Each structure stands twice: as C-alpha cells, then as structure tokens.
Amino acid sequence: MEELGTLGQNADGRCTLRMTRQLPYPVETVWAALTEPDQLDGWLGRLQYEPAQGSPLTIDFGDGVAIWGTVIAFEPPRRFSFTWSERADEPDTEASTVQFDLATIAAGTRLILTHSRQSSRLARATAAGWHAHLDLLIGHLTGRAPDWDEVYPIARKAYEPLVRTLA
Questions:
Q1: Which of 35, 52, 113, 153 is the most exposed place for a label (fewest CB within 10 A)?
Q2: How many secondary structure helices (H) and strands (E) does the chain include?
Q3: 43-72 pLDDT, tens per residue?
Q4: How far is 144 from 130, CA to CA, in rounded Å?
C-alpha cells in the first residue's frame, strides 16, 4: 500500500487531506490521466467538463454517486483544481476544493492531491476513497488496474485511526 496521506482539521472545523505520489511517468502522461475524460473513466469516474477555468464539472462515480463543481484552475500540465459538491445545487462557496499539482522530478512526476475545505463528515469518506482512487490511477498508468473492491477496503482500514481523530 502506498504511503498514507495527511489529514488535518482547522479551527473552523474544515478538514484538509493531502496525498503525495511519485510516479515514474512524464508529467504530460500524468496530466492526461487527470484531465482527459476517457482516461479518468478508467480510475475515477465519468468526467464531464470543458478544460477551462469556470467550466461546470460533473464526475459520475456510478451507482447513483456523483459530484458537481466548477473548474477553479486549469493550467496544463501543472495544476487542475475544482470545487467538490455532493449536491448539484450547492453553492461553490460552501463546496470543498480538490487540487492536483504536478511537478517534474528526476524519477518522473510528483503528484500532490489536496482536498481542502471538507466537513469532517466528508473527510471521513474521502480519505480512504482518494487513497484507493490514486491506487487505481497508478494501476491505470501501468496497465494493471486493480479492482475498487480490492483496494478500497484496505485503504478504509488504514485510514480508520486518522478519521477517528476528527471532531
């Protein structure tokens, strides 16, 4: 299992999850996996958006689970961020924020995922979920994608001590 992310809670009760992965692929390859709908469908969900700041965004995870948001930053091939709402009618000011930052390193690409402004309820759900999705991303890039039902239960158990600390 990859290294666990960090999960903290601010004085206002909002939580921030941060995960880092070192990927042995060029930044352009990782960028494509993060932003091209046909690739995202292989490890995250069905993405609908226009690759531009201000675009509405939907990610359909299947089984009636989806998130809605707005693209905050689209800066190829370095930063992709968007708001994350569990309801289509939730204002962006109430939404959490997901940000992917990419940097070229000697071994390939450093990916930093930051999911900030989360309620503690949402952070409890997304910590293991993001870890599992990043495992699926690595599998997508290697061509050996594991099954969600294999990786999520392991991640959920690993994150139990972290999420228990949230108020």
A1: 52
A2: 4, 8
A3: 999 999 999 999 999 999 988 899 999 999
A4: 18
Cβ-based neighbour number of residue 27 at 10 Å: 19
Packed helices 120-142 and 148-164: angle between N→C axes, nearest 10 degrees? 140
Q: Are 15 and 9 in contact (CB under 8 A)?
A: yes
Q: Let me know: does 120 contact 166? Beta carbons within 8 Å.
A: yes
- Closest by CA to 33, choosing from 85, 82, 100, 96, is 100
Phi, psi torsion values for 12, nearest 5 degrees = -80, 0
Structure tokens at 94: 């109430």
Strand, helix or coil at 162?
helix
- In the chain, where the domains are located: 6-164
Q: Encoding tokens for residue 29?
A: 């390859």
- Model pLDDT for residues 100-119, shown as the tens digit of each residue: 999 999 999 999 999 999 99
Q: State the pLDDT at residue 166.
A: 85
92 or 6, higher pLDDT:
6
> What is the model's pTM?
0.94
Specify the pLDDT at position 1: 58
Report the alpha-carbon distance of residue 150 to residue 74 in Å, rounded.
Answer: 32
CATH C-level class of 6-164 = alpha beta
CA 139: distance to chain centroid?
15
SS3 of residue 112 by DSSP: strand
